[in-house]
Amino acid sequence: MMIEDFCDEQKQETSNMDGNDSSLNPIFDLLYAAGYIHAATPDTPPSHKIAAGISWCIAALNAPTIDDENTEAIEEALRLVGCPHSLRSSDVRDLHTEAIFPVIQWLTQRVSSTQEDRGSDSKVCHSEHTVGEGEHAPHQLEELEQAEISMKTLSGILDELNHRKMNVVKQLDYLRGRINKEGADSGVQKLIYLMTSLKELERQENHFQSNRDSKHSELQAEITVLERKVASGCDSKSPSDGLQYSISDLLERLDLKKKQLAARLRDIVTLRRQIDDLPCQSEIVQYEHRLSELYAQIQGKHQQTRKYYASHNALLEIKELMLKETSLLNSIISQFQEAFSSTDGRVKLVRSMEGIVKGSQQKLEKVRLGFQEEEKILNALKDKYAAVAGEQKRCYSLMKDFQVECAKNERFQC
């Protein structure tokens, strides 16, 4: 991803170079106004025109000739002529107008001022120039040759830089293709992660070293203080005072430790009591057996109590029926003589007897229905008992078969 971003930046810079022609017009105007007529040539690339214009301005200022092998010729030449603005060869190649314009402006101003100085000198010393006209022409030819050499040097430098740029772009495209082809993107991400981890570890190491140094200084200061105390204690005239102070300090520390030990023992005793309150496994088993026995005993008592209550209710019902029967017989005996003495009495007696018989039949029917319900419950319990007994027999048979198979397995293993 980092290589792709770099390639995109390079392509963006190349596109920006093509779009800066409009912003270069003020630069070309300054060069043309200063006397460099090739600045108006439309066929020459902008970077070549700017390089040639800089070379012409430097030559016009009588600067030393630029070496062809020096890749930093522009910076060196500008430094020699005393230019206050910095300009790099990459700025000329990439057409950075913000860096080029102040340099061109300063050079053209210097060229104009130099030309004006030369013009004033020629007016004052016209005779000398007339006499030395034969010598001045070779000097101008030498300046033109130096300018041409500077232009060629800068053009060669620009060509070399452009060639390097193309090679770098090709190499980046090749690397990006290899990464996409071989699937090395994960490796690059892993490398980035490892580099980040390395920086983090270095930061932690520096932090640890700083903490170590501070701790070391603190311990060293404490050692120094203790040494001073020991030295002062040895040199003092009353060592018994220091000894007494040490003993009292030790006693206070001993009391403090005893208090801490007592508090710790109290906590231990409390924990032991809590542990003792919890039953162990054997006690839990005993509790379980005892609870099961109590449950069985309670079930037996419950069934026995229900049986007693049922018997009691049945006896109460029998008693009630017997009392009713006794009262009925007593009423019949007491009213029988009076009822048979008259016809109406006999009719009333018969009707009362019919009502008694009817009530007895209803009571008998009710008891019969209850008996049938009890029989149904009894039959259901018998069926359930038979099913449980069959299941128990089946479990016994399965257990017996399992024991037989276990015995066979043990014999086979032996």
Walkthrough of the structure:
- The structure is a single chain.
- By secondary structure, the chain is mainly alpha-helical.
- It is built from twelve helices and no strands.
- The chain has helices at residues 2-18, 25-34, 46-60, 73-81, 89-94, 97-124, 126-131, 133-182, 185-235, 239-277, 281-340, 343-413.
- α2 runs parallel beside α6 (97-124) and α11 runs antiparallel to α12.
- The radius of gyration is 63 Å and the shape is elongated.
- The relative contact order is 0.04.
- One of its GO terms (biological process) is Golgi to plasma membrane transport.
- Residues 139-411 form the CCDC93 coiled-coil domain.
- Belongs to the CCDC93 family.
- It holds the Pfam family CCDC93_N.
- Residues 115-137 have a biased composition (Basic and acidic residues).
- What is Rg? 63 Å
Encode the helix/strand succession as letters: HHHHHHHHHHHH
Q: Terminal Cα separation, in Å? A: 71 Å
Give the tally of β-strands.
Answer: 0
Count of helix runs: 12
Q: Given the C-alpha coordinates, what overall shape results?
A: elongated
Major beta sheet, specifics? none
What level of helicity do the residues show?
A: over 70%
What is this entry, summarized?
The protein has 12 helices and no strands.
Key attributes of the depicted protein:
87% helix, single chain, 414 residues, elongated, mainly alpha, disordered N terminus
Topology, please?
Blueprint: H1 2-18, H2 25-34, H3 46-60, H4 73-81, H5 89-94, H6 97-124, H7 126-131, H8 133-182, H9 185-235, H10 239-277, H11 281-340, H12 343-413
Helix pairs in contact: 1-8, 2-6, 3-6, 3-8, 11-12
